[in-house]
Structures are given as structure tokens and as C-alpha cells.
Design brief:
By secondary structure, this protein is α+β, with helices and mostly antiparallel strands. It folds into two domains: about 40 residues, Pemi-like Protein 1, Chain: D (Ribbon); about 35 residues, no CATH class. It has three helices and two strands, in the order H-E-E-H-H. Strands 1-2 form a two-stranded antiparallel sheet. Strand 1 and strand 2 form a beta hairpin. The radius of gyration is 17 Å and the shape is extended.
């Protein structure tokens, strides 16, 4: 199936593809070794505060590190 990149860097996912996926609003986007764009559906529950905290813990990010990043970003 063909999809067009819009002037705003948006691509519409064909309906026939979406019908085969669980109902999701978010996708993780990456580029694989072959240069192909990969979309992975992300369940909304993994985007909850609990899900975010779990991901931070896996990555070894502490509350202090996050606070420092926020201070840095706001100082720009």
C-alpha cells in the first residue's frame, strides 16, 4: 500500500492496516538497520504514570536526574 508524506511530515496509515491492529492512539517510531520505518502500537496503559515510572526504573533514571533535566530545559 502506498502512503504519502504530507507537508507537515504526517503519514496516514491505511484503514486496512489499522483494522488489523488493536485500538491504539500511540506508536513507537524507529528506524531499523535496513532503513525501514517501524511503528509499534503502544497500549495507553503503558503511558500511564505507573507505566512511565516503570520505564524510568528500567532505564535507571532517578527522580533527581529527571528534576535536573527539567531545570536544564527550563533554563534554556
Amino acid at each position: 500500500m502506498l502512503a504519502k508524506l504530507s507537508a507537515k511530515n504526517q503519514i496516514t496509515i491505511p484503514k486496512k492496516i489499522l483494522e488489523k491492529l488493536p485500538p491504539v492512539k500511540y506508536f513507537e517510531v524507529s528506524l531499523n538497520e535496513e532503513g525501514c520505518i517501524v511503528l509499534r502500537p503502544i497500549p495507553e496503559e503503558s503511558l500511564s504514570l505507573t507505566g512511565i515510572r516503570e520505564k524510568m526504573k528500567k532505564l535507571g533514571l532517578t527522580e533527581e536526574v529527571v528534576n535536573e533535566a527539567i531545570k536544564w530545559a527550563r533554563g534554556r
